[in-house]
Each structure stands twice: as C-alpha cells, then as structure tokens.
Amino acid sequence: MKEGAKERILHTAAELFYQQGYQATGINQIIEEAGIAKASLYQHFSSKETLLTAYLQNTRVCNHEQRMKYLEQLAPGKERLIGLFKYRLQHMQENQFRGCAFIRIAYELPHLNEDAQLQINTHNQTIKALIASQLQAIKDPFPEASLTEWTDMLHNLYEGAGLQGYLMKSPKPVEDTINIVQKLLATL
C-alpha cells in the first residue's frame, strides 16, 4: 500500500529527528526528503512542534506494540519483567546504541511544549504500569506501598541501565542490570 503524504512526513521526520536531532532538522529538509510540497506539510502539521508531538506519539505507540509483542511470548510475572530488560537490550543493539528517542528529545529540548511532554510522561507511565502488573502477577495481593516502591525501583533500574548503555555504547549496563533484577525478583 502506498504511503500517503502525512505518513511520509511523519516517517521522514522520525528518521531525521532520531538521526540528527530535532533542532538540527529543518522543515525544508523534511519537505525535500519526504518529497512533498510545503503546503502539504502544513496541511497535516501546523508547526514543527506539532510534528514533534506526532513523532513522539507515534514512537510511543509503535515501541509499546513491539515491546508487548515480544513480552506476550513470555510467562507473566518474573519472566516478563526480565524480558522487559532483555527487550530493551535488543532494541538498543538494533539501534546501534543511539539512545532512547524520548531521552534524546527531553535532553535536547528541556522546555518541551505541553503536548510533547505529555507523550514522554505517558511513555514512562506505560512502562511503570507494565512493571506493576507483572509484580502483581508474581504476588497477589502485592501491598500497595511495597508495589509502588518496587515499581519505582525497577523503573529506575530500567531507565538507568538504558541510559548507561547508550552513553557507553555497550550492552554491559543492561546485562548487569538483568542480573541484579533476577536477584531482586528471587526475594519475592
């Protein structure tokens, strides 16, 4: 099926924002590489910021779908929690350790518009909800205060391992974190 103008714009912007950064990517470059007219871009996206928000939303939804497709093959609970970290490692390696799209944008644009920030926050909440649901699959009922503590702790390990892996351009931080998480989960 032929990709429409909106999809071409979004696909091109996604590649450019991820490869060279949001600020280094100009509207004219997106128009040229997408092979569309300027009017077509503005028909679908009222501004570069609107395009950024669409990029983050599309990235969030696609990443979550791919993550869940991977995790649904695993048993609920400990296996899926470890799988979450293994999926992150696989994703990092597939992207040559170029970094998380959300972290890259948040770092590049510390004063994000509200809609773009909402996409980043929603991404984080989705990961935390996934972690919490898998903790509850291990131990039900999981005391609420303990569930919140464990969820936050595992989320911080997940994000920290990812960030260190990207900074070091190495799988080692995530591999080490997988070992730590396995040991932590063995205590439940």
UniProtKB/TrEMBL annotation:
Gene Ontology MF annotations: DNA binding
InterPro entries, per this entry? Answer: Homeodomain-like_sf, HTH_TetR, Tet_transcr_reg_TetR-rel_C_sf
Q: Which domain of life is it from?
A: Bacteria
Annotated DNA-binding ranges? 26-45
Descriptive protein name: TetR family transcriptional regulator
Q: Which keywords does this chain's UniProt record carry?
A: DNA-binding, Transcription, Transcription regulation
Q: Which part of the chain is the HTH tetR-type domain?
A: 3-63
